[in-house]
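Dear support,

I submitted the protein below through the web form. The confirmation email said the job was done, but the results page showed an empty box. After a refresh the structure appeared. I'm attaching both so you can tell me whether what I see now is the final result or a partial one.
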Amino acid sequence: MKILKFVLFALLILSNQLIDAQEKTEVVYLSGTDKDNLVDWDFYCSDGRQSGEWTKIGVPSCWEQKGFGTYNYGSGMGVVDMASEHGLYKYKFKVPKNWKDKDIKIVFEGVMTDAEVKINGKLAGPIHQGAFYEFKYGITKLLKYGVENLLEVKVNKMSSNESINHAERGADFWVFGGIYRPVYLSVSPKENISRVAIDAQANGQIIVDLFIDSKKANDVSIGLLDLQGNIVQNIKNDNITKENGKWRVKGKANDVKTWNQEFPNLYKLQISLLDKNRKTLHQIEERIGFRTIEVLEGDGIYVNGERIKFKGVNRHAFHPTSGRTTSKAISIEHVKLMKDMNMNAVRMSHYPPDVHFLDVCDSLGLFVLDEICTWHNPMLDTKVARKIVKETVVRDVNHPSILMWGNGNEQGWNPEVDDDYAKWDIQNREVIHPWSIYKKTNTIHYSHYHSLVNDSYSKEKILFPTEFLHGVYDGGHGAGLDDYWLRMWNLPLSAGGFLWDFADEGIERTDRNNAIDLQGNKANDGIVGPNMEKEASYFTIKEIWSPIYIEDRFIKDDFNGIFRLENRYHYTNLNQCSMTAKWIKFDGPEGSKKHKLLSKSKVDLPNLSPGGKGKFNVEKPSNWKSADALHLTAIDVYGNEIFTWSYPVSAPSKLSVPLVVYTGEGAIKTETKDQKIRVEANGITYQISKESGMLLEVKKGNQIIPLKNGPIILNQKAKIESITVTSKEDKVEILAVFEKTDKSPGWSTVKEYASDIIKWTIHLNGLLDLRVEFKGYRNLKGYRGITFSFPEEEVAGMKWLGDGPYRVWRNRLKGTRFQVWENDYNNTVTGEAGEDEFVYPEFKGFFSSLYWSKVKGNNNNGFTVYCRTPHTYLRMLTPQEPKENKVGKTHPKFPEGDISFVMNVPGIGTKFQKSESMGPQGNQEHYFGNDDEPIVLDLTFEF
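What the results page shows now:
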């Protein structure tokens, strides 16, 4: 076998040496290749900025980003008040004399929106309409050889076809003008293969449609190469059928590695067009992957025999500095970020992307839904829709990543062209109507959680929302995903779904000193910001969509080291991944953020096939109980982190013991005057109200530390019954007792409960203990906990031990890590341009699993608080409400005060949904009932 491969390899090298370079297609760029590599063309803009005179513009580009014309954002309701400038382009170029006998085409990868192309004053072909589609003209007869040629392009930002304007120009996204994707010459031999369509199945079966522009062609040979161009095997042609310039060739490759999202194995198919003497007339190479797609009605979507679930996201082709003009580097960055979130799919919303993005999906591994651009009613007229479908499929047909075609978006589907896809797609992939129940699928958008019951007349349809959990501001995406995914994963007919959307589409306005414009709440619905700034949902998604699913676990004294897990890969055995366990000790508030590693060990993951459930064991070192946390980090087959799970080991009451030391010298002074209890210890003076038991003032030396007006017990209606002061040699105790109540809210039965209390203890060294006891409520739609005032302008930052570094909501608790964190103050409104735009993590909000926090002050020394009560949330200030928050869906009501310690937090909604419609975790009801013990908050303040 090795000898045979060597012979085949030698023959291929020899044959390539005999093939003249002119017998391959040459690509010659007239423009630059991407947003970072432009070529200047002459340019004239008819209206708006820099209009009315000839100047220069870099191509490819959106002319607004080069200072021309007028900015437009689609209304989402059709074309309203759109600027309609046009641009004139001129470019001179030479072609060599020896091209006379070539077949030369000029290719435009994308022009917004109507393009009229002339070569040397003559039309190259009909005006092209549609902003997102590649088009080309044969220009062999229009060129002058050996001398200079003139290319002229007139680009109308608005189309003369109103259905295109409605679909593209009036949609809910930025509208740009210009030659925004590259332009090049495709130079082929006169006798050539004009295009090719390939169906490479998982079993190695290959069917190739060749579209031949040749009178001399007699035969074809096909070779399978690796990506380095080395021969793998020659494909024997089983048969060739020829008719009307189209040849169909069938063959079989042996022992191929299949393509899938987890193992994106690729090859090159080398196709040589031969004359009757076996001389090569034209040779092309096309990158392929062997895979089989099946959409089985009432069952699911299968790739290579495995039923898949989309962990997907919608994605615009966009960059804040260059608009729709992007680059392969951007495509790589986007796909890597998606895969880092453990996503496996992407929807092209709402138009075909740059070719390089699909290339990257092929090579790095993402399933793709490719889509033409439509937007609600009215739909594209049939004539132009047929052209657009053809242009999309012909360009993208050979990408193994593409599993399905989307015939437009949200009621913009033209059913007259549903069958057109099959005319151009040799693989006959399924067509869907995003947002619709169509044929085998239900792709409903923004459905409430209860829709996943899937009990309607369409319950036999394969269910996968092509948009769900809209991510405007800080709502959606990660918020609600845990509930949705639990149902989706266990629902047989669910094929997952696609979040809306990947990145905030914020454009740097060249008419506003490059300020980022998000059009209010229309374009800020990304998981990442315009420059890929990671929001909290990024990490929540990463955990929830981890292909290694670990059951929730709490580590107590009787921890046995066993974790239960499930393999949620589609193709990867868990023994191909690795895991490391770290037992960690943290420094206190005055130490560093770094941790001390007590022990590190390898975890042996089980031999577990996709879909299997099992368990693994974490080695317990002899000193494991002295650790503060256990971190488990899983690594995939490519060396990338899947996720790091964290588990507190020490209880907060135990961890605080060495940190809170009460010894001191001196004396404590106490006096009560004017209904104020004044206690002085170690240079710190406390004033506590004799009427309410609340802290009124903290003064250290001559400096006021502005923590006051607390604790207010949230949802507490009882009045103070008594306040007593007890002085001892080394401390002073102040006890406030509330009136008893004989009924617990939520219960109709009468029962006597213990009184709520507030107990302050001031120690000799100035430490201040606070113990608050209050009853649990049943069916509470509010907060349980305590709150204080601390003016926002007095806060500079905080350092804490707990979950972080991002804030949480009730329906977005995952994605954090338990360790020491430190954030500086910011006033970021997620996804909103402003003074602190896109600065993450957001400083203000709720933070879970508080052990201690050092609050840094502005013009004051701040304070440190130690929390002995497990599962306590720290509320740090109140996030600013988004400017266009709809009915409070994406800004829950916060407790009174500024800094709170609470036992529950609210969920957050989306642009279209309130949190309670997004699953159990978003419900407003909280259950705290405990007939035996009160809820106790046990804190120590150090000033």
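Response: this is the final, complete result; the empty box was a page-load delay. Residues 199 and 207 are 5 Å apart (CA to CA).
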